From TrEMBL:
<dbReference type="InterPro" id="IPR003265">
    <property type="entry name" value="HhH-GPD_domain"/>
</dbReference>
<comment type="function">
    <text>Involved in oxidative DNA damage repair. Initiates repair of A*oxoG to C*G by removing the inappropriately paired adenine base from the DNA backbone. Possesses both adenine and 2-OH-A DNA glycosylase activities.</text>
</comment>
<dbReference type="GO" id="GO:0006298">
    <property type="term" value="P:mismatch repair"/>
</dbReference>
<dbReference type="Pfam" id="PF00730">
    <property type="entry name" value="HhH-GPD"/>
</dbReference>
<dbReference type="GO" id="GO:0035485">
    <property type="term" value="F:adenine/guanine mispair binding"/>
</dbReference>
<comment type="function">
    <text>Adenine glycosylase active on G-A mispairs.</text>
</comment>
<dbReference type="GO" id="GO:0032357">
    <property type="term" value="F:oxidized purine DNA binding"/>
</dbReference>
<dbReference type="GO" id="GO:0000701">
    <property type="term" value="F:purine-specific mismatch base pair DNA N-glycosylase activity"/>
</dbReference>
<dbReference type="GO" id="GO:0006284">
    <property type="term" value="P:base-excision repair"/>
</dbReference>
<keyword id="KW-0411">Iron-sulfur</keyword>
<dbReference type="InterPro" id="IPR000445">
    <property type="entry name" value="HhH_motif"/>
</dbReference>
<dbReference type="GO" id="GO:0051539">
    <property type="term" value="F:4 iron, 4 sulfur cluster binding"/>
</dbReference>
<keyword id="KW-0496">Mitochondrion</keyword>
<comment type="similarity">
    <text>Belongs to the Nth/MutY family.</text>
</comment>
<dbReference type="InterPro" id="IPR044298">
    <property type="entry name" value="MIG/MutY"/>
</dbReference>
<dbReference type="InterPro" id="IPR023170">
    <property type="entry name" value="HhH_base_excis_C"/>
</dbReference>
<dbReference type="InterPro" id="IPR011257">
    <property type="entry name" value="DNA_glycosylase"/>
</dbReference>
Length: 415
């Protein structure tokens, strides 16, 4: 078994834990943001509807800022106020409402899980973090802990990006914060800290602190309600601790501690508390280039219409609609790009497409989390109708308004 973590990184003093809880909750009661999912969780008497309201917010908030989520959340809850309503919706409707929010598989998994609750769990939400994670697709450890604590009062801790930052600064954890070993220790800390009488409020307070005060680049340490418990703040004020740690504090030999900063990355006094957390260097995003053709025609009422096709049901942007597109090899000359796109369109349309007829419009760059995507945009006006082979992909003609109301990605809206 691995050795227990060094004591100075833990919250082992009950009096300190009690004081930290009290200070953080008092600050939260004074300063918390007024957010729609918090209002629903606080006022909804039905436990299943309360759990559903929190669940939707937590899924939307994954990898997405609060300011962006609010409008999407309000529209979602207005359209599907219950699990039962969401379970009856189509995936196309879900994708249309989710369009622009990113990470589209989240909406799909949310709907799949709602259908499972209705069909297999008699419409009753699981009540514990363990059951939520085990029974609901797309619900991981963090989301399960958030739903269980906020909706059902279970004293379960949570660890998300904000909590990682707060805990690493509170306890000067300088090891790679994305490593499984460090994440496990942070979960241990979160479960020790969570207030037993107000677990949901405490978890939200901890996340709120990371989102509004203990922010990544310019933390507002002067406004922090728990700064007296923060080792990084004290270190900033009083300088470096001794280079050789106490034998009982961080292991028998320098470098033994799995949570201390590595010896090769010393404290940088110019960074202050932002020395923490430390992360492994990110892999550079994959570079991709895609040719996209906006096919257009005059509809029966004279309005311009555009052809869109549906993406496969799995993978990036699964099930969304786009203009006909073709991945390109890197460093192709423009003439060759046109030829490949013309061949691609010809195979779909069943009629010749001249490469010279494709009009180059420009390039659109869109950054996904792991992909640096460049869309090379062409247009092609057509006379009359074009029907693509349905065996290749579903397709339809849409007006500009219909396009924006469809389940299309932000990247395609840029195109």
């Amino acid at each position: 078994a691995p050795a227990p973590p060094p004591s100075r990184h833990l919250f082992s003093d009950p009096a300190e834990v009690k004081a930290l809880r009290g200070n953080l909750l008092a600050w939260y009661d004074r300063c918390k943001r007024d957010l729609p999912w918090r209002a629903l969780a606080a006022t909804e008497p039905d436990p299943d509807r309360r759990g559903y309201a929190v669940w939707v917010s937590e899924i939307m908030l994954q990898q997405t800022q609060v300011a962006t989520v609010i409008d999407y959340y309000n529209r979602w809850m207005q359209k599907w106020p219950t699990l039962q309503a969401l379970a009856q919706a189509s995936l196309e409707e879900v994708n249309e409402l989710w369009a622009g929010l990113g990470y589209y598989s989240r909406g799909k998994r949310l709907q799949e899980a709602a259908r499972k609750v209705v069909s297999e769990l008699a419409g009753r939400m699981p009540r514990t973090a363990e059951d939520l994670q085990k029974l609901l697709p797309g619900v991981g450890r963090y989301t399960a802990g958030a739903i269980a604590s906020i909706s059902y009062g279970q004293a379960a801790g949570v660890v998300d990006g904000n909590v990682i930052r707060v805990l690493c600064r509170l306890r000067c954890i300088g090891a790679d914060s994305s490593s499984p070993a460090v994440i496990d220790r942070l979960w241990d800390m979160a479960n020790v800290l969570v207030d037993r009488s107000r677990p949901g409020d405490f978890n939200q307070a901890l996340m709120e602190l990371g989102a509004t005060v203990c922010v990544p680049k310019v933390p507002l340490c002067g406004e922090c309600p728990v700064k007296q418990h923060c080792q990084a703040w004290r270190r900033k004020l009083f300088g470096n601790p001794p280079k050789v740690p106490d034998v009982e504090d961080c292991g028998k030999r320098v470098g033994d501690c799995p949570l201390c900063p590595p010896a090769t990355e010393p404290w940088d006094s110019s960074l202050g508390v932002t020395n923490f957390p430390r992360k492994a260097a990110k892999k550079p995003p994959r570079v991709m280039r895609t040719a996209t053709c906006v096919l257009q025609r005059r509809g029966c009422h004279g309005a311009l219409e555009y052809l869109i096709v549906q993406r496969p049901s799995s993978g990036l942007l699964a099930g969304l609609w786009e203009f006909p597109s073709l991945p390109l090899a890197q460093d192709l000359e423009e003439e060759r790009e046109r030829e490949e796109l013309a061949d691609h369109l010809q195979a779909w349309m069943g009629r010749p497409v001249a490469a010279k007829g494709l009009r180059f419009i420009g390039e659109v760059i869109h950054i996904f989390s792991h992909i640096h995507q460049t869309y090379v945009v062409y247009s092609l006006p057509l006379d009359g109708n074009v029907t693509l082979d349905p065996a290749l992909a579903p397709s339809r003609w849409v007006t500009e308004d219909e396009f924006h109301a469809s389940a299309v990605s932000t990247a395609m809206k840029k195109v």
